[in-house]
Amino acid sequence: MHRDDRGFLILREYLYLFEQLNIHQDIDHEAYQEQTKALISDLVAMQYQFADHPGPLIIILAGFWGAGVENLVNFIARNIDMKQAQVTTFWENTFDQGRPYYYRFWDNLPPKGKTTIFLDAYYMDFIKSFVKGEINALQFKNYLLEIKEFETMLARDNAVLLKCWFYIDKARQKRQIKKAGDQLTLPDDDALESASWNYKNYEKIYYAAEQAIMLTDSAPARWHLIAAHKQKMARLKTLKLVHGIYRIHSSHIDTGYRENEIYINGTSPVLDDVDLTRTISKTAYKDRSHALQQEIYELAWLAHREGLSTVLVFEGLDAAGKGGCIRRLTNAIDTRLVHIYPIAAPSEVEKQFHYLWRFWRKLPRKGFISVFDRSWYGRVLVERVENFARLDEWLRAYEEINHFEQQLLHDRMIILKFWLHISQDVQLERFQEREKLPWKQHKITTEDWRNREKWDAYEESANEMLTRTSTSHAPWIIIPANDKHYARIEILNHFQRALKDSLEIHADRTRK
Prior knowledge:
By secondary structure, the chain is an alpha/beta fold. The protein has 18 helices and 10 strands. It has a 5-stranded parallel beta sheet with strand order 2-3-1-4-5, sandwiched between helices. Strands 7-8-6-9-10 form a 5-stranded parallel beta sheet, with helices on both faces.
């Protein structure tokens, strides 16, 4: 066995995954026309039937350079109704580079019943980074497992995934490069350089592609390997797969929610241990808050210059004081750097997507700050208690949320999650005060009183949420909030320390 200095298998006999494919299989023109015509004749009708499906169709087409993946994308697009679909590519780097890597995919996900075709998607980015030595084998594996988790999460929310990898051998790739050069179909020197690089690193790309396919092949997101040596055969096989996926999933699936009456929560009541007697004097509060706000103003601008972005999450029961804490914190930040998102029930448009979709689209660009007044945790709080989400939906949300926040950490984003906790007596006092004072009456509704009757259910949900989603990379910070001034100072303290620590870590990495 022979390996290069990075551990790549480079002997031909060890390249095995694609060897099962018959690269010589072909079809005559008449049979090709007959079969494609039959498939195309009812493809659009099935596409419209798929419009009732409770999730989108995501088609991922990827493969070796010279396999004609771009032409296959165009071929599929010409034979489906593009009013119900879109094609998304990132070859011009038109995505927002100031946001986390997966933002571009979330931003281009189709709504329920619609289709998107991703050219290469995330696969070739990581394969090329591995081959170039920008990431090591362990990092490559972790990125692939992250992809698998992402696709599984979408599938659990009724998304249908069709993944095709198009294969050509090295000899065919060489002929494609020569043909493209002779016909001047390579648009510029960069394209020619890319083609040459792919050919030079063919064995390494083969190995990396093999690993990517094996590690991300799963029941809800199977890979289909297609030999692309014969164009007609490759087109016909791809068309059959697209036709078949629409046919299988064209029937509506009932996703009506079930009552959450079979679940037993075994987590600890962590909120019982919160010391709600903590207070601060008005004088100490005034002095300390002024000093912290001045320091935070400078730190926020330093973070902006270094490209460090921040996500702040505020959760808590009604009247916990989230709004007041957010105001005191954002008053310390230049308004150009921060955006506050008050999260209400999802709109009719937002309901057509995975529940995390609307939050991905609100993440900050590098150097900026997003503040969420309520957040994605609504899935395991209000949606759980009020039965807006099925039992299986909110149960898997703990894992999905942890994975989501891990992705933000990979982008070196600062994540602070605050749970503001108050007693039932203090909540009652604040409700009554809101009803009496004219300038606070807009804060109290019959819905608030109704929710108060479900205090035990909300507290149970909060206890489980705090236990299951407080991780090393994004721990929950529980703030005793019976004393509003104490809560505000604590949040300013945590934010100031988080900015300072992140700037120090960033400076150390830069020096190294």
